## 1
Amino acid sequence: MGFSIEAPRMIPWKEIDRAKVPGNEGEVILLARGEEFSIRTSGTELMNSRIHGSEESLAELALSRLDPKVNWQILIGGLGMGYTLAATLEQSGSDAQILVAELIPAVVKWNQKYLGHLAGIPLEDPRVRVTQEDVVKTIGKQRAVWDAILLDVDNGPAGLTREANDRLYGNSGLKASFDALRQGGILAVWSSAVDEAFTGRMKRTGFKTKMVSVRARKSGKGSKHTIWLGQRP
Ligand SMILES: C[S@@+](CC[C@H](N)C(=O)[O-])C[C@H]1O[C@@H](n2cnc3c(N)ncnc32)[C@H](O)[C@@H]1O
């Protein structure tokens, strides 16, 4: 990719803030260069503001499969920079209720302080609530309540940056998501890579499963990412 006129790559990264990940899991850092933001943990980039097409597709593909109905209850795992949340709000009615579970309190604070403008200040929408906890815990709290659970908490089932997130993608994690969904509800999972074993686990859990390949950018360019859509029959 060539440099734009602003040549963002020529501007050095500047650290804005850093914070501890709960549970002694290292640090998370917020960096900026020009208009671009990056959230990183131990050398791995969790999210970059330049590329967010597939994060939006996660919400669009899942919610387009739901019956039009009033009062959607939607759970999003991982706030990141709020792009999935903004796309969810775009697709949802005025009476929808959206809960975002975010593991790292600093990520919520950064969205309120530095990142909100990137996705249109979605945290200020009255349909949105945030819980600062592991989404595994949020999923386990209730049964048959969610119309959709949208998970983008890691690089996907085969690309974990946080080993504990394996609990979401293993058999018991999938069963917990299945039980937490209403009949007809959708589990959507974002991943940087294809993982046939995960497709198999979703099917064995009982989900009507489809694996979709999407591009990183809305323009149809960029790397290929994978989104699983699993419907509770
Ligand atoms: C790749 S980012 C999400 C990007 C987001 N979809 C967006 O549109 O900007 C992953 C987010 O999930 C959070 N996270 C990681 N593991 C989590 C967990 N188990 N529960 C809740 N949040 C988690 C990270 O702190 C990070 O904010």
Note: The mean pLDDT is 92.
## 2
Amino acid sequence: MKIIDLRSDTVTKPTQQMKNAMLEAEVGDDVFGEDELTNKFQYKMATLFGMEAGLYVPSGTMSNQLALKVLTQPSNEVLIESKGHIFQYETGGASFLSSVQLLPLHGKSGKLNAAQIASAVRGTYDWEPETKVVCVEHSTNKGGGTVYSLDELRSIRKECQRHKLYLHVDGARIWNAMVATGQKAHEIGQLADTLSICFSKGLGAPVGSMLLSSSKNIAKARRFRKMWGGGMRQIGILTAAADYAVQHHRPKLAMDHQHAKAFAQAIYETGSLTIDLDSVQTNIILFDTGERTALEVLDIFGKKGIKMVPFGPSTIRATFHFQIEESDVNRLIKVTKSYFNN
Ligand SMILES: Cc1ncc(COP(=O)(O)O)c(C=O)c1O
């Protein structure tokens, strides 16, 4: 029985074609700036998002943390929605690596709005920390895969400009956000001071993210990447996989969203599990387990070879990716109906 692994979109394995692209990569030493494939790929991504420069890094976490490092001074405050990855899942890195404090704000489905930013800005008095950066996630992770409209992003940007704040966009799943909204890469890029994008989520590369920003910020980030042990040598082998993923796996994301919607509909129809269908916007779904605990429900699915993750005592997250096929979704729906329909 095939395991249907919906724990994350990071569980995909490189395809043979991706491995071929990696094998064929011409490499050089990137610490010397001589890995031409990586140089070209960084330029390609920066151009796509309308930014001046890009820096390939091992993870989305490093990319986010580098962004905070280049945008802040110690003791600054960073505004973030309380479900944000930087607040929840980066081991307190912002305080350790940049000596800044995060101010978590409670938004809706992991999203902030301009009014919240306006009322949270501080720094007028010398006993307050100085607010310096706003972080938004597009699409959200713990928020359940929700996306911002361009209007929402633009009003956040305007608020940032009004208060002289930098805007960091954590675009670990920006590729999904673009599919769901029809937004163009440069439309998002032009609103951000720093933008973090990932290749190892739904795009299916084995490793890698990229920080995009001005040439000045990227030069600064490059020094900190080295300091933090992230200077890498023949990384063309990895950026070849990332480039392959952007070219060949990006078109598959729309299918992941359809699969997520189909599963969400089945959950909605059970009557025993509950879900807000409006919140199903990309490849991630969050649902409530009703009278059963999340662990009980996970156990039932687990016995049928279906893996998901608990996101609270009675909440489960399922994440779709291109290695989940139509037949897997049919099996998933069948199991859902037979065990959970009232
Ligand atoms: C929104 C978001 N940002 C950043 C990251 C961090 O990425 P990585 O696991 O590559 O450090 C993740 C990981 O899932 C994420 O969901």
Note: Residues 59-61, 64, 85, 137, 141, 170, 172, 198, 200, 209 surround pyridoxal-5'-phosphate (CB under 6 Å).
